[in-house]
Amino acid sequence: xxxxxxxxxxxxxxxxxxxxxxxxxxxxxxxxxxxxxxxxxxxxxxxxxxxxxxxxxxxxxxxxxxxxxxxxxxxxxxxxxxxxxxxxxxxxxxxxxxxxxxxxxxxxxxxxxxxxxxxxxxxxxxxxxxxxxxxxxxxxxxxxxxxxxxxxxxxxxxxxxxxxxxxxxxxxxxxxxxxxxxxxxxxxxxxxxxxxxxxxxxxxxxxxxxxxxxxxxxxxxxxxxxxxxxxxxxx
Length: 235
Description:
Layout (H helix, E strand, L loop, with lengths): L4 E9 L5 E10 L4 E5 L6 H7 L8 E6 L2 E2 L5 H7 E4 L12 H11 L4 H14 L15 H13 L5 E5 L7 H13 L3 E5 L3 H7 L2 E6 L2 E7 H5 L2 H6 L4
Parallel strand pairs: 3-8, 3-9, 6-7, 7-8
Antiparallel strand pairs: 1-2, 1-4, 4-5, 9-10
Helix pairs in contact: 3-4, 3-5, 4-5
């Protein structure tokens, strides 16, 4: 089976010269749910921003859903790769929940009827169907996280890329989010420090440090290696 996410030898440096990625290679299969863990500054977020072309590699290749992530493919890539940021307020900027979730389908040029159907399906998928008329900025953090996921679900992506999805959630909202993500069929790459969520949700774990992948394997094996976790600032 061809990978749905593929990076080969990807390196990237920020304008100040700091190397954020050093020859990273990674493949994720369709439907696979993968954790991306490591200390702050390991390169996790930088890697994720390469998956829909927000950042471009200095060298190496990035491919998503069989498409090279490059200028001529960006519209299709961004429809296939749903990126959910750590802070949901970075994605919620419209007057109502409906408007936020409809933004992507409208941008795709879909008809009014199809936009409405996409919004209804996306909100149903995150169990927030009754929130369409609510004001986004009045929602709780957990509710905003679900709506942020709905904004990318409305694009009907094949891949979900989530940055610290459980950050700032109380225990009930965190458990609800884990249960939600478990039910979604998309391939997932989840950057997180929440190793309990990794244990409960993500069968494979990739460890990054210093811009490199230092371990990649079954979550049970990675989390059972106390020396590995300690060496890379994980608890």
